[in-house]
Design goal:
Elements (H helix, E strand, L loop, with lengths): L15 H11 L6 H13 L2 H17 L1 E2 L6 E2 L13 E8 L2 H10 L4 E5 L17 H8 L6 E4 L5 H14 L5 E4 L15 H9 L5
Parallel strand pairs: 3-4, 3-5, 5-6
Antiparallel strand pairs: 1-2
């Protein structure tokens, strides 16, 4: 059976609680049946306290987290710590696809403004349209005139580019500066290993030295 194939049913030798956990893991994105079985049997062999800790962490996550009413990031406190930080630049908002993107940008240390999480991208193939994203919440934040720049930090793929273009057109009547993250060669990369698109973008986004 391939990793991406669905389970074909519970073997007669598999206890029902074990089978239910395998099925629960398999419903998670990126977890195939074999991975689901490995995770389940790891927990089966693990000390009971480890299993209880995992279960408690999952329950607490569901019970104690919410979406920030301002930026739509996952948080315990509403508004979140970034939105209430007086040291953040209030004149710029960086728009990302998912909460994990904020973690990546914060690790870089290169941005000190605010964020807005769309919770997805426009993807007709997946049945996701603009109305399914947190766009109304973004527009509402921009009406007070404090923000001067919106930075689109969606992924550099077809869906991310389409979403960035849609948001740019949506915000154009508001007279805001809408920018896009530059794309090009990563630090330490060799030209011979770069693909044509990356090289073209690196040339287009070249800077003064």
């Amino acid at each position: 059976m391939s990793e991406g194939a669905p389970p074909t049913g519970r073997p007669a030798s598999t206890a029902a609680p074990v089978a239910r956990l395998i099925e629960a893991f398999h419903r998670l994105p990126g977890i195939g049946p074999k991975s689901a079985q490995r995770l389940t049997y790891h927990l089966l062999r693990a000390p009971q306290e480890e299993a209880r800790t995992l279960a408690q962490a999952i329950v607490e996550m569901k019970e104690k987290t919410t979406l920030c009413s301002v930026c739509q990031n996952v948080t315990e406190d509403d508004p979140c710590g970034i939105c209430t930080d007086p040291q953040r630049d209030q004149s710029s908002i960086c728009v990302v696809e998912e909460p994990l993107d904020i973690l990546a940008l914060e690790r870089s240390g290169g941005y000190r403004g605010l964020y807005h999480v769309l919770h997805g991208v426009i993807s007709p193939m997946e049945g996701v349209g603009p109305e399914d994203l947190k766009l109304n919440e973004l527009v509402a934040r921009l009406r007070n005139g404090t923000v001067r720049e919106v930075i689109m930090a969606t992924n550099p793929n077809l869906e991310g580019e389409a979403t960035a273009m849609y948001v740019s057109r949506l915000l154009s009547p508001m007279g805001l500066r809408v920018t896009r993250l530059a794309r090009g060669l990563p630090t330490g990369a060799d030209l011979e290993y770069a693909d044509d698109v990356t090289l073209a973008q690196a040339l287009e986004n070249r800077q003064e030295v």
